[in-house]
Design goal:
This is Substrate-binding domain-containing protein. Helix content is 39%, strand content 21%. By secondary structure, it is α/β, with parallel strands linked by helices. The chain has two domains: 117 residues, D-Maltodextrin-Binding Protein, domain 2 (3-Layer(aba) Sandwich); 128 residues, Periplasmic binding protein-like II (D-Maltodextrin-Binding Protein, domain 2, 3-Layer(aba) Sandwich).
């Protein structure tokens, strides 16, 4: 009798142990650790979305790591992180590599309209810049334009927009978009190229200080001037408007896909709007008067 009772107890304990292990390993969108790779240019909006997700799901722990866009994509393929933020279109080779290494279809989760902007010191006499000036300047040995580095999202996007390879462009480098803003006065004949999200937050003290140091040049295209304001981003009239999107290598609905879904819902899109960017998913509000 005693032996049979021992067998029953051991059997029950083994079932409990197995069920606990399954519970620990089961996918969960609301808890666990997640690393997101993002270019510095859109780090602010990524961090804001991560903070919003962690407030809603306290058991989720999200770490946002700054990484150049090209390198972030490669690290995603290698499984070093589960989410990467992208802005440019992938080449056919990159699409094939994603499908082969991740093992799923390419499904970009678009969440915001951002922009690459051209800036000069506040006291500069220049008031605009044309598409021709941009193209010719990036092929000149004068290296008139200052980017935040090679492999950066800003350089990649401008090159793609001009149908060029980044290696074919001529430019100067000051690491870090905020450093470009702060040091631009030293180079009055240069034009800085940064991401709008660097200082797009309307009421953030640091953003206000950075915006006060420079002015954004409207871009002339086909005889018209376009600015990277909300209207220019929403209608994508500003020539260097870019759509930010998430890529993941997570095959199930775990924390990575949970975070991505949250970012594309109304709560996440409200955060995007508070960042001074244009939400990709626009939610209409209807008010009925009685």
């Amino acid at each position: 009798m005693k032996n049979s009772m021992k067998v029953i107890v051991l059997f029950v304990l083994s079932i409990i142990a197995i069920s606990c292990k399954k519970e620990e390993k089961s996918p969960s969108y609301y808890k666990g650790d997640l690393t997101i790779l993002t270019d510095e240019s859109f780090k602010s909006v990524t961090e804001a979305l991560a903070d919003g997700y962690m407030i809603n799901y306290p058991e989720a722990h999200i770490k946002v790591v700054t990484q150049k866009e090209d390198l972030g994509f490669l690290d995603l393929l290698k499984g070093k992180a589960r989410v990467a933020v992208m802005s440019r279109e992938l080449s056919n080779d990159e699409l094939n590599a994603y499908k082969e290494q991740v093992g799923s279809k390419f499904l970009p989760a678009r969440f915001a309209a951002d922009a690459v902007v051209f800036i000069v010191p506040k006291n500069s006499s220049r008031t605009s810049i044309s598409m021709d000036e941009i193209q010719n300047g990036l092929l000149s040995e004068n290296k008139q334009f200052i980017f935040d580095g090679a492999n950066s999202s800003n350089l990649n996007y401008v090159a793609q927009k001009l149908k060029k390879q980044p290696k074919d462009l001529k430019f100067s480098v000051i690491p870090g978009s905020e450093n470009i803003i702060e040091q631009l006065n030293k180079y009055p004949d240069k034009i800085g190229v940064i991401g709008l999200n660097t200082f797009s937050r309307p009421y953030d003290k640091v953003s206000i200080q950075l915006r006060d140091m420079v002015k954004i040049l409207p871009v002339e295209s086909k005889g018209k001037l376009y600015t990277p304001d909300i209207s220019g981003l929403r209608e994508m009239k500003y020539p260097f408007t870019r759509i930010l999107y998430f890529l993941t290598n997570e095959g199930n609905f775990n924390i990575a896909n949970g975070f991505i879904r949250y970012s594309c819902t109304q709560l996440g899109q409200m955060i995007v709007q508070k960042e001074g960017l244009q939400p990709y998913n626009i939610y209409k509000r209807e008010v009925q008067m009685r």
